[in-house]
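Input chain follows. Return structure tokens only.
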Amino acid sequence: MAPGPPKALKSLHAAIDLVWKDPARKDYALKAVAVHGRALQFLSVDLRADKEVVLKALKNDGWALQWASEELRRDKEAIFKALKKEVRSLQFAAEELLADREFCLEAISKNGLAYEFVDPEIRADREVARAAVGQDGLALEFVPEQFQSDPDVVLRAVQNCGMALRFASPDLRGNKGLVLAAVKQETSALKFASQELQQDRDVWLQACPSRLGHWQSQEEVLQEVEKEGSLLQLANPRLISKPEVMFKASVKDHRSLEHASPELCADVDFLLRLVKQDVRVLTHATDELRADREVALKAVDINGSALEFFTQELCEDKEVVLTAVRRTGTALAFAAPELRADREVVLAAMARSRTALLFASEELRRDKAMWLYNGEEPPVFDPPPEEEAAADVEVAAAVEPSEASRS
């Protein structure tokens, strides 16, 4: 007998393939969105308006809210379920809700960063701003400038998250009381204080009571940056240029490279060593390196997601992109549109991660063969010999006139 369907169709990930058999069947839809919430986009209009299906999709992936029906994008239960998974999904909620003060306050009470997506008039409300930074101090980044200069709003933010000091107005970053409140929460917030306060021995001792002054020895600095890389800025400038110090600091916090010398940010071997630890270090590479094809090939071979940090031209280079997706399938998201529509590239990405198909072109995402048979034509299953013989008899009976009709 002919072989049955591929084993992949029986796996959990094959649930999403059911959508292609019938995008209007609810049982298929529920299985599909349980695996990939974003499969909601491929369902029928009626199922995208079915609350049970949409809630299951949102439980898996908050981004799925954008494909829910208009009615469900006005449904608070659905919106808050999406918000719980992904705060940025709030941007897909109905506009009238984002302009409703009561709704916005409720959303902010669940996640202060929801403040970024509410109507500008609501963001201009001081009490709403205070509520947001009280729930998550980092929401201070999104408040109007007048609130970033408001001592009460900023104090509330840094008491919640010391690092929020970076978003305060320059004059408040020179306010000793606010700076001390921030460093009490997080020692490394001191790097966002004014230069004068960074050199203030009283502030330093209150922020770091176990230390008697700025680090002077390489051994001491290495010990500290292994605990918290972002503290590097507080070290003696002479030591920041040391590759070993910068490497350990950057492993702990890639932003430490902001303080590296231009020579170090242009050192290919140094950066590739760091890519093995945290691919985001490439945000600090020189423009020349991020446009260098050989560097790109080496970086994406270590971590395919490194593709995100190279030039558009390299994201259009098929060899570079293939190397990336063969290492990390979801790196397909950073490929140029024409390569996300290239069957060979997409199949290479899917071989690494089936989820990569979600980043392919719409045409390929809607290609049933891609989902079910990895891009190949559906197999033809030949019937057993006895079935073929029976079929021949039926055909003959249908086409040959009977003796009665001849006469």
